[in-house]
Specification:
Elements (H helix, E strand, L loop, with lengths): L11 H10 L2 E8 L2 E8 L1 E3 L9 E7 L11 E13 L16 E16 L2 H16 L12 H9 L1 E16 L6 H11 L1
Protein name: FMN-binding negative transcriptional regulator
Organism: Massilia orientalis
């Protein structure tokens, strides 16, 4: 990813915060027909000594061939806030009319190797944690609310995936290259 210095993010914690707040990632890998991408909600696991940048965990349908890419190099893309920025939000006169539209956005790329996990207890645990995280803010449905035989069938038709994050890179392009007055107008327009 092209990252000019003023848009670079150096702090892993800032990158992990974006992933945690925007867990739907596009998982890219090289498949038999070229590059392939799957959109998957991930659980972000905090860094450990064995995984200093953290882990990404998810589950996919057994029919999805992504899990067969065990040990493949993958790239998970996460996006935060984004918005078109009109040049009319800038001080056009002060710039002598030399303004163009742009796009402000936040993006994090997590690089690693995919590991397939075909362990029913692991899969059920991952489903339970992921569902719990997102349901807590809603109605509070729990995996345990469904009939056990149904959940067992879902688990059998699912495969877990885990990615030890080997490298994180991010670009938070939020008008840092503009004057404070321009940034204030852009921020107000997005509000």
């Amino acid at each position: 990813m092209y990252v000019p210095r003023q848009f670079a993010v150096a702090d892993d914690a800032d990158m992990r915060d974006l992933i945690a707040a925007n867990p739907l990632g596009a998982l890219v890998r090289l498949g038999t027909g070229g590059l392939e991408a799957d959109h998957i909600p991930f659980e972000l696991v905090a860094p450990t000594e064995a995984a200093p940048h953290g882990l990404l965990r998810a589950h996919v349908a057994r029919a999805n061939p992504i899990w067969q890419a065990d040990d493949a190099s993958v790239l998970a893309l996460f996006q935060g806030a984004s918005s078109y920025v009109s040049p009319l939000l800038y001080d056009v006169e002060a710039a002598g009319g030399r303004v163009v539209p742009t796009w402000n956005y936040q993006a994090v790329h997590a690089h690693g190797r995919l590991r397939a996990i075909d362990d029913p207890a692991w899969i059920l645990g991952q489903m339970t944690r992921l569902t719990g995280r997102h349901e807590d803010a809603r109605a509070g449905w729990k995996v345990e609310d469904a009939p056990r035989e149904f959940i067992d069938k879902v688990v059998r038709t699912t495969v877990g995936i885990e990615i030890v994050i080997e490298r994180l890179e991010a670009k938070f392009k939020m008008s840092q290259n503009r004057t404070p007055e321009d940034r204030a107008r852009v921020l107000a327009a997005m509000g």
